[in-house]
Amino acid sequence: MGDMSEGQIEGHGGELALAALRAYGIRELFTLSGGHVFPLYDAAHKAGFPIYDVRHEQSAVFAAEAVAKLQRRPGLAVLTAGPGVTNGISGLTSAFFNASPVLVLGGRAPAFRWGSGSLQEIDHIPLVSSITKYAATVPDTASIPGSVQAALTAALTAHRGPAFLDLPLEVLFSSEDVPAPVADPIPVTTADPADIAKAAELLASAARPVIIAGSDVWAGDAIEALTAAAEALQIPVFTNGMGRGALPPGHPLNFAKARRAALNEADVIAVIGTPLDFRLNFGEFDPAQVIHIVDAPSQRATHVQPAVSPAGDLRATLTALADHTGKRADHSEWTAGLRAAEDAGRSRDAAAMAAETDPIKPARVYGELRKVLAPDAVTIGDGGDFVSYAGRYLEPSQPGTWLDPGPYGCLGTGMGYAMGARVTYPDRQICVLMGDGAAGFSLMDAESLARQNLPVVIVVGNNGIWGLEKHPMRAMYGYDVAADLQPGLHYDHVVEALGGAGETVTKANDLEPALTRAFNAGVPYLVNVITDPEDAYPRSSNLA
């Protein structure tokens, strides 16, 4: 790509796209090779722009989403036309539910032959329009930078989410000279001050208030503001999603184990930066009043009626709550009661995490893992039953260190998230917690990690069943079908064959040394833990 004149750039479509992508802080692309998108590879290669490739397109989108989540800036996946794009749709949908600013650039069959039956000719836009904030076909080469700008501005505007562009073959391969792209300012919406004041008054005057903080608090860079608001109003804080770790372990207002008591007894519950979905009983906390604080009006709940729902920049809203000067009730007795429940819960968990059983209980896996994880380790959940235990027994020490599939519940995120996390943090521990069922979705991408020198640790809870389905189906019907996997399967051998390493653990006392070896291996390393198939995590009844 060469300069035509000051403020102008010249190049083929891939070079024009790359210039716009870099203006928004994108620093790498994730892909699976396809001829429709060769100019994007050419531009990246010539510019020394890192390219990471995978064995299934879903992993490319999940890797881009991990970058978007962890770094709070856009992540990029480049997918070839047709099946390349459709293979990435589950990743796009997860990004949509998780409010992750992911941009997918798709190839597209040539426009000048449209309708003639070119290779992989399909109109992607109707397939992705309902799960993206912006979806369009770029009409000509000169429009590429502006289209990238429009897509990324939409993706970064709260409520954030993915965007999609596809580029017809001749549009991407042709050359043009255009003005040099710059990033557009991202619009910021401020919540109605009256709504914020009402929320502050309700929380300050409540006898038993609770805060539940979710992923958007992290995504909106509002962690410090959340802490300030909680401390100013002296309100216990519970977290979910990427809100986990917002308050450090040991903080007097940080709670996890007393959640049931808190939600059953609270008179005011402020849910901040997370939807009132199945994870939160759909917001039905009668007789407590519910305050729903969201980052955009589109995120206000419509299935319940909160007492108030401030909608706007979360950092500004939480800062305003912290600055509230009105009358305040004394919450010390309420907090002390929850602390007693918290301590009792921790004692129960400690016993479970030290259980000496044969076969191994999932809780013991997490008890041993806690001994070897560094405070800044990134832990990634990819599974159902086994990862449900992770949510209970692992407590992130820092915000922005926990990745799970989110409310869409899509399995197969693990290897893509691991790639994005390793690219983000070359020197941290990266640990994937994977059910043996989930291993079937993405484990082949351990080869991508090994080949590109991206070491991670994968801990598989191997109970030989689909745990969240087998036990409930038995309870409902007295039998189960389509819920069994091969017991004792050597997933570690799979990773060894793909260029990594691993081992199988059948005894609880062997867990800690195996995990220590894994984190010191320097290659993708799978610890295959044979766990008790009869030990099933209680499944939520709030699915519908």
Helix content: 25-40%
Q: What profile does the largest beta sheet have?
A: 6 strands, parallel
Tell the overall outline: globular
- The strand order across the widest sheet is 3-2-4-5-7-6
Family: Belongs to the TPP enzyme family.
Pfam family, one: TPP_enzyme_M
Protein name: Acetolactate synthase-1/2/3 large subunit
Domain Thiamine pyrophosphate enzyme central: 196-321
Structure in words:
- Helix 7 (144-156) links the parallel strand 6 (134-137) and strand 7.
- This protein has 544 residues and is α/β, with parallel strands linked by helices.
- The mean pLDDT is 95.
- The chain is globular and about 70 Å long.
- The strands form 4 sheets. A 6-stranded parallel β-sheet has the order 3-2-4-5-7-6. A 6-stranded parallel β-sheet has the order 14-13-15-16-18-17, sandwiched between helices. The protein has a 4-stranded parallel β-sheet with strand order 10-9-11-12, sandwiched between helices.
- Helices cover 38% and strands 16% of the residues.
